[in-house]
Specification:
- The structure is a homodimer.
- In chain A, 43% of the residues lie in helices and 17% in strands.
- Chain A is built from 13 helices and twelve strands.
- Chain A binds a DNA duplex through α2 and α4.
- Chains A, B: It comes from Paractinoplanes globisporus.
- Chains A, B: InterPro entries: HTH_LacI (IPR000843), LacI/GalR-like_sensor (IPR046335), Lambda_DNA-bd_dom_sf (IPR010982), Peripla_BP_I (IPR028082).
- Chains A, B: Pfam families: LacI (PF00356), Peripla_BP_3 (PF13377).
DNA sequence: CCGGTTTACGCAACCGGTTGCGTTATCCTG
DNA sequence: CAGGATAACGCAACCGGTTGCGTAAACCGG
């Protein structure tokens, strides 16, 4: 950094006032005359002066920084396409609000690194996407008094906020769509059940099955990791078993891709012999054969809501700490339209 | 932040020394007795003292922060699966080296925001993934004297470093693989030609075609955006034209997905009638039907190399500013194996 | 044992903002 | 016009580290 940028005292000297006055003028505080204020802001503009965030942090104790968790292990979290989209929404909201985003990389061999970074850098608040309420890190952060907002998980702790979407009603809608199309033997291929979103999806599925009563002949739920190969194997077992389902609701698009794969290798036609739905609206869902019916989460809204909740918590403004946003079912070719005659 | 954490003077008082001595002891500087040093580090450990990065920044002028560009518009850059993987590699390297990563969100309506953030936060160096040498931002940053490393682009400016991979030889290898399998009518479906990676891929393709001489009957190059729908349309035109190709080398997996789509709708068999290859090794490449032959870039190595180059530039250590890393061709089902009899 | 060098540390200024308090000038009201 | 209230600023201490310089003590060789 060769360029010695002007300090607030340089600006003050040019304007013939003291540094304190410049500070007050910049921050819109009272105690500065109208013409003085104007003169100062002119000089600031023409000098291209930008207040040094570091110095401001030191004196105010606030950094205007929010940390976002970035798990280095668990690459599936970060590599999942929802992650960058969330990050973008957070970044957008942060930029508008004058905050910067610090990546909180979390590796298995440095468990204290996130907490250390939060205190070292005076991070004002933390967003934890895809980290559960049982994560010990959450406890560490709340013990510090740092505001925390979870995304995609729900916590009972009153001090932590969360933003989530309607996994349950989404699963329910998809299930109903299957039933409306005449499917009678349903399977929910869920993800790991400790994931709170999966619990909700399960609840929605079973709620609809229960309500449908005799319209459904059989309903089962299995759990697989969010992994295409594992899903293929499980689907092969299901589809070549005694009572193969005619509809599989999957808890992720990667699982659904595995199911499509299994159906193909068994010579089953999708959606004629088998209806398949996914979750997440991953970009590749439009590229599969057939294209995948799935559930889109309002990621941009989720990110924005999380950021705004965090800002409110930082400023100690009252705010709802529980936000649930609506999902949207994206109907494509892997499910048949409603009111088709049921298979004989 | 309720917890008033101890300052360096508190530690000094407990150790019965001055703050300066504690500072020297922490940073391994000379001028501290062995037993004093030991006593101080014990107290630091038992108090859980962490040096305040803000204060240190202010006095040293260095922030131990590196900025990573995050274009909010141009979501295709960020949503591309290579982005999070790069980010992870950068984060990993940064964490090891004691740096933190600040996201430099760039939006169209705030063109100066990145530069402002770099000066405001005293960012030590900037990584620009997927930003070209002609980007005005690059100029702004170098004018500031900030070290910059590009990823995936090459610049002639001596002051900026870059890390890239062998797009040219990768394209060449794929093309040769096509020829070895008996293909004779080739098309390169390239991305936007202003992208430097696309220039290199084009060069590699044509180099191989030229060298193959009479083994190739025809060779063409077309340019489409990195977009599946656009690629489908273009591929339909090509494949239903007068002299349809028997091999299409694509500059991205998304383009290749479009080609697969077009082939399917024309009733062409891949790879029997048509060989298709992609680029980037996107996760969905293993899920397409047929699975996609593609090129994998060493993203983790690229990220690490970029980070380490940047650290060296920041410390004014000598370092290579041009790094090219090797790619790897991932052979799957969309290309046929070599030495098949050429089509009659 | 003595003079000079080295070592170990304290002191205080500094980094660049913010903010409470004190002072002076201006305004308003009776 | 006198008097107090108010507005507009300056001053200086602070935030929590770092670092150049000064000094006293320990050490060294001759």
């Amino acid at each position: 950094m060769k360029s010695d940028r002007p300090t607030i005292r340089d600006i003050a000297a040019m304007a013939g006032v003291s540094a304190g006055t410049v500070s007050r003028a910049m921050n819109g505080l009272p105690g500065v005359g109208a013409d003085t204020r104007r003169r100062i802001s002119e000089i600031i503009a023409e000098q291209g002066f930008r207040v040094d965030a570091t110095a401001r942090q030191l004196s105010t104790g606030r950094s205007n920084t929010l940390g976002v968790l970035f798990p280095l292990h668990a690459s599936e979290v970060v590599m999942h396409p929802i992650y960058p989209e969330l990050l973008g929404a957070l970044g957008d909201a942060a930029e508008r609000a004058g905050y910067d985003i610090l990546l909180l990389t979390m590796s298995r061999d440095q468990p204290a690194h996130v907490r250390d970074t939060v205190v070292r850098r005076r991070v004002d608040g933390v967003v934890m996407p895809a980290a559960g309420p049982r994560d010990p890190l959450l406890r560490q952060l709340t013990d510090l008094g740092a505001p925390v907002v979870l995304i995609g998980h729900r916590s009972r702790l009153p001090s932590v906020g969360w933003v989530d979407c309607t996994h349950d009603t989404a699963a329910r809608e998809v299930t109903r769509m299957m039933l409306d199309a005449g499917r009678r033997d349903l399977v929910l291929m869920n993800g790991p059940v400790h994931v709170s979103a999966c619990k909700l999806r399960s609840a929605g599925f079973w709620a609809e099955v229960t309500e449908a009563g005799p319209a459904v002949a059989s309903a089962r739920e299995v759990s697989v990791p969010f992994d295409t190969a594992a899903a293929t194997a499980e689907a092969l077992t299901l589809l070549s078993g005694d009572s193969p389902p005619d509809a599989i609701v999957c808890a992720s698009d990667t699982i659904a891709a595995g199911v499509l794969d299994a159906a193909r290798s068994l010579g089953l036609s999708v959606p004629d012999d088998l209806a398949v739905s996914g979750f997440d609206d991953s970009p590749f869902g439009a590229l599969t054969q057939p294209t995948l019916t799935t559930v889109r989460m309002p990621l941009h809204d989720i990110g924005r809501a999380a950021a705004e909740m965090l800002f409110a918590m930082i400023d100690q403004r009252p705010t709802s700490r529980r936000v649930v946003l609506p999902t949207e079912v994206v109907v494509r070719a892997s499910t048949s339209p409603a009111f088709m005659p049921p298979a004989p």
